[in-house]
Amino acid sequence: MAARTGEWNPGRPDYLLVAIVAILTAFGLVAVYSASFVRSLVDFGDPYSYVLRQGVWAIGGAVGMFVMARIDYRRLRPLALPLMALTILLLIAVIAVGVEGGGARRWIGVGELTLQPAEFAKLTVTIYLAAWLASRGGSLRSFEHGLVPFVLIIGTVSALILLQPNLGTTLIILAITVTMFWVAGATFLQMLSLFGSGLVAITVLALGAGYRAERITAFLHAEKDPDGIGFQTLQALIAIGNGGLTGLGLGASRAKFFYLPESHTDGIFAIVGEELGLLAGLAMLALYILLMIRGYQVARRARDEFGQLVATGITTWVAVQAFLNIGGILRVIPLTGVPLPFVSYGSNALAALLLAMGVLVSISRYGNDRGGYLDQHPVDRRPRGAIIRRGQEP
């Protein structure tokens, strides 16, 4: 059956990308069970409670990923504004009537039916900003039509997430959007202005709230208070050190017996290192790096700017979030409290990531040079080999 005019002719999906996501998600279920069964037994009287919840969301997320991969990603562009409006409303609802937990208010809903809008905001903001940037043309390079609206858009979302408070997610969204802004063709002066003002803002925020200042202190001087603010930082390093090269064995972690706080969420990389050793940790790093490479390859092959920017944003999201989590556990940077992509326990985080991967796979199918465009209108054909920023086309 002939395709309708104006449709993309889909090529093969990036099977390696799909395989990486499947491996990380499956490994995550094993890691969540191993890291959580003690806490699950104490909290619910059932050692399988956390992993079963994660499994249900993994299945739901996998279905969502499959559906999104089958849909032409260009269909998301008309939905960009409604998705952004819904995101803003949900973030406001979190502040107004959200559910509190762990000293923060980040969820809306009742009982098991809770939603964490900030996790899905990473995807909706990426889609909206890609549509907005692709429509700017040369005006993006001006301060009044480019930088100022960009700051207002991202500043609004960031402020709502910071009020929860959730600095880690805010940092990820800033990394995503600033990278997209640069790829879309922002000038060096605009980027310098963003980095300068952002550095000042992050410094003020990091030192302004008590728990954020404590994380900085724990990063710099954990040994001065090993039973207090430095406890989590040091226990994570001890767990990894105990694992050595090959680990103590799957399920044999000692840190998960309430030595390492949040062992099944933020600290799961330390449990993996303790049980499976340095080699397993390096294998996980290799998978994240390979995912990043494949994601940026999808971006550079995209035939339209919207697809290029969405793929860039999604890939940056996974790369930065993995760095923030692993870097915090290894004491390369202060702890931020963000989950390890696909591996940490967290239903909303996993579902949002799998949906995003579905969009990325869709771009690999519909938007690259292995497929084709079936219309007679001009096509934005970028040369292969690198992500081409607006203003740099030959």
Automatic annotation (TrEMBL):
GO terms for cellular component: cell division site; plasma membrane. GO terms for biological process: cell division; cell wall organization; peptidoglycan biosynthetic process; regulation of cell shape. It catalyses: [GlcNAc-(1->4)-Mur2Ac(oyl-L-Ala-gamma-D-Glu-L-Lys-D-Ala-D-Ala)](n)-di-trans,octa-cis-undecaprenyl diphosphate + beta-D-GlcNAc-(1->4)-Mur2Ac(oyl-L-Ala-gamma-D-Glu-L-Lys-D-Ala-D-Ala)-di-trans,octa-cis-undecaprenyl diphosphate = [GlcNAc-(1->4)-Mur2Ac(oyl-L-Ala-gamma-D-Glu-L-Lys-D-Ala-D-Ala)](n+1)-di-trans,octa-cis-undecaprenyl diphosphate + di-trans,octa-cis-undecaprenyl diphosphate + H(+). Its main location: membrane. The keyword Cytoplasm does not apply. GO terms for molecular function: lipid-linked peptidoglycan transporter activity; peptidoglycan glycosyltransferase activity. Its EC number is 2.4.99.28. Pathway: Cell wall biogenesis; peptidoglycan biosynthesis. It is an enzyme of class 2 (transferase). Keywords: Cell cycle, Cell division, Cell membrane, Cell shape, Cell wall biogenesis/degradation, Glycosyltransferase, Membrane, Peptidoglycan synthesis, Transferase, Transmembrane, Transmembrane helix. The keyword Transport does not apply. Signal peptide: none annotated. It is a multi-pass membrane protein. Peptidoglycan polymerase that is essential for cell division. PANTHER family: CELL CYCLE PROTEIN, PEPTIDOGLYCAN GLYCOSYLTRANSFERASE FTSW-RELATED. This is Probable peptidoglycan glycosyltransferase FtsW. It comes from Tepidiforma thermophila (strain KCTC 52669 / CGMCC 1.13589 / G233).
